[in-house]
Known about the structure:
Layout: E1 2-5, E2 17-20, H1 43-56, E3 65-75, E4 78-88, E5 97-100, E6 106-112, E7 118-119, E8 122-124, E9 130-133, E10 140-147, E11 149-150, E12 156-161, E13 168-175, E14 178-182, E15 186-194, E16 197-203, E17 209-216, E18 228-238, E19 241-264, E20 269-275, E21 278-279, E22 281-285, E23 294-317, E24 325-326, E25 330-332, E26 336-347, E27 350-358, E28 360-367, E29 374-381, E30 387-394, E31 399-410, E32 413-424
Parallel strand pairs: 3-13, 18-26
Antiparallel strand pairs: 1-2, 3-4, 4-10, 5-9, 6-7, 6-10, 8-9, 11-12, 12-17, 13-16, 14-17, 15-16, 18-19, 19-23, 19-25, 20-21, 20-23, 22-23, 24-30, 26-29, 27-30, 28-29, 31-32
Amino acid sequence: MTCGADGPAGTPESPLRFRRVYAPADRLKEWPRDNLRYVPVDAAEFERLTASAQANQTALPSCPLTEASYRARLEGETLVEGEAVLRFAAFSRGGTRWILEPWNLAVSEALWTASPPKPAALLAAGEGKLAVVADPSGGLRLAWSLRGRRDPNGMLEFEFNLPPCPLVRLVLELPKDVQPVVEGGLTTRQDSASPERVQWAIEPSPRPQFHLRVVPSGQLDSGRTLDTVRQATLYEMSLRGVDVTSQWTLDIRSLPRRQIEVELDPGLRLCGAWLGELPLRWSAKAAGPAGQPALAWLELPEPVRGPNRTLRLSAIGPVVLGRPWRLPEIRPRQFFWQEGTIRLLVPAPLSLEYLSADAARQTATGMLAAPRTGESAELQCFGPSAGVRVVLGSAQPELQWNCGTTVELGGVELRAQVIAQLQAQEGEQFQVTAEVGPRWSIQAVESVPADALDDWSQEGPVG
Length: 463
C-alpha cells in the first residue's frame, strides 16, 4: 500500500511524495492502522497513473552551479565527515527545483547557508540524480560520505560523480604516508592537519566524473609519475566460446619496463600477445582458488619506456548461455587506468537477451555487417572496475532436409537404407534427432564427409 502526502496549498511545484508500506499477506484485514484512510487501487493501475503523471511534468533543469567546494577526511576505506558547499546562479524564484546530476555522494544533512541556516529539501530524482528545491537566500551546505574500493593492484580508489561546475575544489585530510592521485587533475600538499595527517588540495579535471587514487607516498617522487593505460576490449561470441581481444595503449613514464604483469579472469586462457607487431613470449600461472584470477608475465624484448606503446592480447574462454554472466576481463597490473571501451559482437544463432553495465554506459547498438547476421553493442567505461553482464540465448537453426528410403525384403526380416541431405539455412547445428519406427534397429550411421559425424546412439526399446 502507498501513502500520499499533499504539498502546501497554492504551491503547484511542491513535490507529491509516496511512502510504500508493505503489509503481511496473511494479515491484510488488520490494515490500515491508526484510523488512516486508504483508497484501494490496483497495483498495476497505480504504477500506470504515476508514470503518466511523471511523463506529463516538465523535465527538471540541471542545477546552474557557479562554484563547488568539497572537503572530507579519510578513515579506513571511506571518506567521512564530508562537507560540500554549492553556490548557484540566481534563481528565478523560491521553490524552483533543480537537478544535481550526476551525483553519487551519500548525503546525511542539507542546509541553506542563510543566517540562521535552515533545512534544505532534497528529492530523489532517479539513479545518479539528486533534486534540490531552491532557496534564493544563499548557498547549499551538504554533509556527505563516500566509500572507496580496492582496485586489482590493491590501491584504494574513489569514484566521484559530481555535477558540472566551472570552479571545483576538493580538500582531503589523509594519513601522512599516502597521497592522492587524480588523472588530469592538480594536487597540492598543504599544511599538516596534525603530526599524523596531511591536508591535500585537489583541482580535478573539468569532467564531472573522475577517479581519485590513494597511493603510498613513496610510490611517487619528484621524478616519477604513474604509468597509465587506455583499454579497448572486443568480445566476439560463438557457440564454441568467447574470443577476447584487448588492446592497451601504454604511457610508461616511470622506469623502463622489461616485463608486464597481466591478470586474466577465471576461464580465460591467453593465446597471444604483441607489442606493436612484435610477438611476445610469456609465462603463466593458473587461476587460484575461490575465483582468483590467473596471472601471466609478458617478456619484452628490450626495456620499454615512453608514451603510446601499443600492446595487444588475445584470449579464449567458454561461453555461458541462458543465465547472467559477467564477461571475463584481462587487466594489467601496476598501471593507472585512464579510459576504456568495450565492444560486443554476437552473431547468429546467438542472441543478446539482456545487457547491464557496471561503471560503464552503453553508447551504441547495431547489426553485424553482411554477410554475417547478429547484433553488436558498444560501451564507454568510467573506471577500472567497469564490466558487462549479459544473458545470451541460442536459437536453434531451422533444418532443411531431403530424404529417400530403400527397403529390401528378404527372408524373415526387412532391411532399409535411409539417405538424408541436411542443411542449416542459418547458424550451426551440432546435434540431429530423428524418430525411429517400432521394431527397427539402427546398424550403422555414416556421413559424407566421413569426419562430419562424431558419434551416434539409439535410445528407447527395440523390438
